[in-house]
Automatic annotation (TrEMBL):
The lineage of its organism: Eukaryota, Metazoa, Chordata, Craniata, Vertebrata. Belongs to the sorting nexin family. PROSITE patterns: PX (PS50195). GO terms for molecular function: phosphatidylinositol binding. Residues 1-136 form the PX domain. This is Sorting nexin-5-like.
Length: 366
């Protein structure tokens, strides 16, 4: 069912997250349209999944299969305290203090749905953002054999040649960009993990230098002063590594992670359109083989399928144009934010190192 969203999309925020065992509960706030009143609801991941399924399964929405659905971040694996498992499945979204990166990704997901010209009119979205009761319900899961058969069928359909050169080129472009985005995300994640390891090592080294402090004689006192000052410097290096890593996570990391997931979302949309194309070609072949007394029925089915395929293609072209315009704007915003944060951190670090250098010169001149 379609309805007008009763809150402003730009006001949607995830302001807090609480953990109860293996369950994360997110506090979502938003501002009412034409009103100073605010709304706050509490949602679990199952509620987000409920919303996504409702977006997928809307009825009487022409060309819905041509929509590039904003990608919902994957569920945090249980148990929540298994860092290696979370990192493997969530990547950047597993990093950051108190699930900040994960909350930011969910927040951006809601904002993207709320600003979408088609999806924002889904009644389930307004209910999700404004109703106090939790809407999430467990849904039936398909068996693994069914999923495997779908995967094999999917591989066959993905290689099917398109009748429209625009979509054929778009599929090729998407395949390349999806692979490159995934590699870029993995590489910057490796950089962040290395920075965090270096920060940890600097912390250990700084602590060890304190063990060298000795006040027994004059020579030992002088050496102790050097160790203490060096410990302060190494501690500053540690803090710099931590800041640089956090900057990478909050800006470039989240941007690349979003880019990679959106490329997969576009791939899924193109695949759905290809499936409809194969369905149309099959209907046409069956119509040609149909006997004269049943041809009228088959021709009506063919016309309906052609109309549906045409609507999907029309929506898909608009979505692709909108997607590429949006992804450039969003990724540029993350890159600018990354540059600004790293530049501020570098200036702050250079100023601090300069102060330590002057202190060391004075220390050795004594």
């Amino acid at each position: 069912m379609m309805t007008e969203l009763s809150v402003t999309a730009s006001s949607i925020r995830i302001t807090d997250v609480t953990q109860d065992g293996d369950i994360l509960t997110f506090a979502i706030t938003s501002q009412k349209l034409n009103s100073s009143g605010g709304v706050c609801v509490f949602r679990t991941y199952e509620d987000f999944d409920w919303l996504q399924q409702n977006l997928f399964s809307q009825e009487n929405v022409p060309g819905l299969q041509g929509v590039i659905f904003p990608p919902l971040p994957p569920k945090v694996p249980s148990p929540l305290n298994t860092a290696s498992k979370s990192l493997k499945q969530l990547g950047f979204l597993a990093l950051g203090h108190d699930w900040q990166s994960y909350c930011k990704a969910l927040e951006f997901y809601l904002q993207q749905v709320a600003t979408h010209p088609i999806l924002s009119q889904c009644k389930a979205l307004d209910s999700f953002l404004t109703k106090s009761e939790s809407p999430g319900k467990q849904r039936g899961r398909k068996g693994i054999l069914n999923r495997l058969s779908q995967a094999v069928e999917g591989m066959r359909k993905e290689s099917h040649k398109d009748v429209d050169d625009f979509f054929q080129k778009q599929r090729h472009k998407n395949t390349n960009l999806a692979a490159l985005s995934k590699v870029a995300t993995e590489k910057i994640l490796d950089v962040v993990l290395t920075e965090q390891k270096l920060a940890l090592a600097c912390g250990h080294f700084s602590t060890c230098l304190h063990l060298c402090v000795n006040q027994d004689d004059e020579a030992a006192v002088a050496f102790s002063k050097i160790c203490l000052k060096l410990s302060d410097i190494v501690e500053a290096v540690k803090r710099n590594f931590e800041k640089v890593a956090n900057n990478n996570i909050a800006t470039l990391g989240l941007g690349l992670d979003l880019e990679a997931r959106y490329e997969e979302a576009e791939k899924e949309m193109l695949f759905r359109r290809t499936c409809k194309l194969i369905e149309l070609e099959t209907v046409k072949k069956n119509t040609e083989k149909t006997k004269a007394n049943k041809r009228d029925v088959m021709e009506e089915i063919q016309k309906a399928t052609e109309k549906e395929f045409s609507l999907i293609s029309s929506v898909a072209k608009q979505e692709i144009e909108r997607f590429h315009s949006s992804r450039v704007t969003v990724l540029r915003s993350f890159l600018v934010g990354w540059c600004e944060k790293q530049l501020d951190t570098a200036k702050e670090c250079a100023k601090l190192y300069s102060q330590y250098l002057d202190t060391c010169k004075n220390l050795f001149s004594e």
